[in-house]
Design goal:
Layout: E1 2-5, E2 14-20, E3 22-23, E4 26-32, E5 35-37, E6 40-42, H1 49-61, E7 63-77, E8 91-104, E9 118-123, H2 127-130, H3 136-147, H4 158-164
Parallel strand pairs: 2-8
Antiparallel strand pairs: 1-7, 2-6, 3-4, 4-5, 4-9, 7-8
């Protein structure tokens, strides 16, 4: 897997999206079956990458973003999984979005409209120990976002943000 800035090549199919919401020195993570991870998932048939990012962010965290900005992609070579799974082609792109101006709605745990059991804003310094598969490449992605102003992102409804996420510094 390789992190690339900009649009994926036209010939590379887009199979999934990941959303990075950096807020006041923290990153929004969702707790899914494999552990704590950034919100994201498959792009459904006929769905745009942007629509998938909006949907996955809501389904996994009950957060809406006024702005989702595409900033890069991961080039993925799925030799091990391609024959066994039609979900991901052998070569594909995972499109990366930065989420800004967040509206954070109450999250009451697993239900029919949640794909995760929890969400949390995790301090950037703690990601390596909390994220289920933190890598130097993921650290590079965070640094890229921060260099472009992500550190100043604040929720549009701060009162909801404080109410539903006690782990965030005020």
């Amino acid at each position: 897997m390789t992190f690339c800035v900009g649009q994926p090549p036209a010939a590379l199919p887009i199979s999934a999206v990941n959303v990075y919401a950096v807020v006041k020195g923290t990153l929004l993570l969702t707790h899914v079956q494999r552990g704590w991870d950034t919100p994201g998932g498959h792009v459904e048939s006929g769905e745009t990458a942007h629509a998938a990012a909006v949907r996955e962010l809501w389904e996994e965290t009950h957060v809406r973003a006024a702005r989702l900005t595409r900033f890069g992609h991961l080039q993925v070579h799925n030799l091990e999984t391609a024959p066994a799974s039609q979900s991901y082609p052998e070569k594909a792109a995972i499109v990366l979005y930065a989420a800004e101006d967040l509206e954070i709605m109450p999250f009451d745990g697993p239900s029919t409209d949640h794909e995760s059991s929890d969400r949390a804003f995790v301090p950037l310094a703690d990601l390596a120990t909390i994220h289920h598969n933190w890598t130097p490449m993921k650290q590079q992605i965070i640094e890229y976002i921060l260099e472009r102003g992500g550190r100043h992102t604040v929720p549009s409804r701060l009162w909801e943000y404080r109410q539903v996420s006690a782990t965030i510094p005020t």
